[in-house]
Structure formats: C-alpha cells, structure tokens
Amino acid sequence: MQVRRSFSSKIPNELLDGNLELGVVSYDPADDRLQSRAIYTDALAFVVSPLHRLAQRKTVSITELGAEIFIAHNVVSPYREVVLREFQRHKVPLRMDVEMPTIETIRKLVQNNAGVAFLPRMCVEQEIEQGLLCEVRVKEIHVERKIRLLYPTRRALSHAARAFLELLG
After folding, report:
1. In whole angstroms, what is the distance from residue 115 CA to residue 104 CA?
2. Is residue 22 part of a domain?
3. Is residue 4 one of the residues assigned to a domain?
4. Which CATH number characterizes residue 122's domain?
5. pLDDT 10s per residue in the chain (169 long)?
6. Is 109 a member of any domain?
7. DSSP conformation letters of 52-92
8. Measured between alpha carbons, how far is residue 128 from residues 49, 89, 122, 134 in Å?
9. 138 exposed, middle or buried (CB, 10 Å; 0-12, 13-18, 19+)?
10. Residue 65 maps to a domain
C-alpha cells in the first residue's frame, strides 16, 4: 500500500483515471462514478494563542471578531466559503491579512499570537490539550466536516484496498 498527499480537488479525477485506488477528502464530490463513505466527523475550531485576549473565554459572538487578524489557509475549500458567508451575513469584516500554504504554519503562527484561525479540530486537538492553543466557540459558526473515503464505483478493488475497507467496517 502506498500513501500519497495531493490537493483534495484532484483526488476524484485521479481515482477516475485509475491513478489511485482509494482517496480521502473532506467533502462529497457528488459523482455517481465514485463511492463516498464518511469515515470520520470533524469540525472547524476557532483557535487563539493562550496569550490572546479571548483565550480565557468559552464562547464569543462573531461580532467580536471584526478587529482580529485571521491567518487563513490559501487553499479554497467549502469550509472557507462557509466562514466567509457567515461573516458577510453578520456584516462583520473578516481581515485575512495572512494566507499560508500549510495548516502546520498557521498553527505555529497562532501559537505565537500572530493572529487567529479557523482550523480542522483534528489538526489542533493535541495543541489544545497541551495548552499551546485555546479553542473558543463562535456562537454563530458551527461547521462540521465529514472526512470521506472515495473509490470508483465500477472498478474492482485490489485485495489490499478491499481489506482496508473491511477494516474500516
């Protein structure tokens, strides 16, 4: 078995072209040629440094975030769009002055109090538990993420791929 990292937007075509046997993405491509199976449920977490003014708060209103500097992932995703829409809907400015290519870099910048971010909870869970980041619930934003396993509908899977699917249950 080989594991490769790729842009999630390319994975459906890679599967359909026969270059991949299984793929994992955080959205449903809604393509009849692909089977899509939710294997994990995650959420977006609003995270701040322990030194940030909101670090001791359990919840905040979206209206309190208009002056914050957000560090964003420079990859377009449906989750980013949900956050943008909610800020627009509540007429709150969203200052995304910094965009970074990796979640790791965003996490480090937030830890250093260079800004705040919405990140997949599964990517910051350990830092939250260790007190390196603080999660603050934004009342108006709850974004659930389904992590999905994809595979072609009409192509036979290898023994290893079938065994992996069975292992997932």
Report:
1. 14
2. no
3. no
4. 3.40.190.290
5. 677 778 788 999 999 999 999 999 988 898 999 999 999 999 999 999 999 999 999 999 999 999 999 999 988 788 888 999 999 999 999 999 899 999 999 999 999 999 999 999 999 999 999 999 999 999 999 999 899 999 999 889 999 999 998 998 7
6. yes
7. STTTT-SEE-GGGGTTPEEEEESS--HHHHHHHHHHHHTT-
8. 10, 29, 10, 6
9. buried
10. yes
Domain count, the chain: 1
Residue 88 sits in which domain range?
Answer: 42-145
* Backbone φ/ψ region at 18: left (φ over 0), alpha (ψ -120 to 50), beta: left
Q: How crowded is residue 68: how many other Cβ atoms within 10 Å of its Cβ?
A: 21
Q: pTM higher than 0.70 for the full model?
A: yes
**Among 140, 141, 123, CA closest to 132:** 123
DSSP of the chain: -------GGGHHHHHHTTS-S-EEESS----TTEEEEEEEEEEEEEEE-TTSTTTT-SEE-GGGGTTPEEEEESS--HHHHHHHHHHHHTT---EEEEEES-HHHHHHHHHTTS-BEEEEHHHHHHHHHTTSSEE-EETT---EEEEEEEEESSSPPPHHHHHHHHHH-
